[in-house]
């Protein structure tokens, strides 16, 4: 992957479905390399980001998180980014986007 690939982005998709935005970054018309999408719940706009493993570490998730975070207040919602607390790369995205840890959740599996 060329170091300067960000300078050659083919397209930046920004769409809205159900009143909540989704954002995608492409390097060619056919290759989507980062995407984020949200949903409304109890005054929050929860969202997650997926980045193609070959394109991680180049700030794409940061840009997607910043755009989605900026959209939430315009819709009267509080941005809520979901990440695995042990995923250090995802935590760095949160920190560089100016967000902070607000709460954690835990998933439980019933005993057999």
Spatial ordering of strands, largest sheet: 1-2-3-4-5
Give unreliable regions as ranges. Answer: 1-12
Please tally the β strands and state the result: 5
The biggest sheet, with number of strands, parallel, antiparallel or mixed sense and barrel status, is: 5 strands, mixed
Give the fraction of residues assigned to helices: 10-25%
From the N-terminal CA to the C-terminal CA, the straight-line distance is: 47 Å
| Structural domains: how many | 1
Q: What is the CATH architecture descriptor?
A: 3-Layer(aba) Sandwich
- Provide the structure class: alpha+beta
Global morphology: globular
Query: Averaging pLDDT over every residue, what do you get?
Result: 79
- Within CATH, the superfamily carries the name Gcn5-related N-acetyltransferase (GNAT)
Classify the fold: give the CATH topology: Aminopeptidase
Radius of gyration: 15 Å
Percentage of residues in strands: 25-35%
**SSE succession:** EEEEHEH
Give the number of helices: 2
Identify the CATH class.
Alpha Beta
């Amino acid at each position: 992957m060329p170091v300067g690939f960000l300078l050659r982005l083919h397209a930046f998709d920004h769409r809205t479905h159900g009143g909540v935005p989704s954002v995608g970054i492409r390097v060619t018309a056919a290759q989507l390399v980062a995407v984020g999408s949200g949903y409304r719940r109890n005054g929050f706009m929860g969202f997650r980001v997926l980045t193609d493993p070959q394109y991680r570490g180049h700030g794409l998730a940061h840009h997607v998180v910043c755009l989605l975070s900026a959209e939430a207040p315009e819709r009267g919602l509080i941005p809520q980014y979901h990440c695995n607390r042990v995923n250090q790369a995802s935590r760095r995205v949160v920190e560089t986007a100016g967000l902070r840890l607000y709460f954690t959740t835990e998933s439980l599996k019933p005993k057999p």
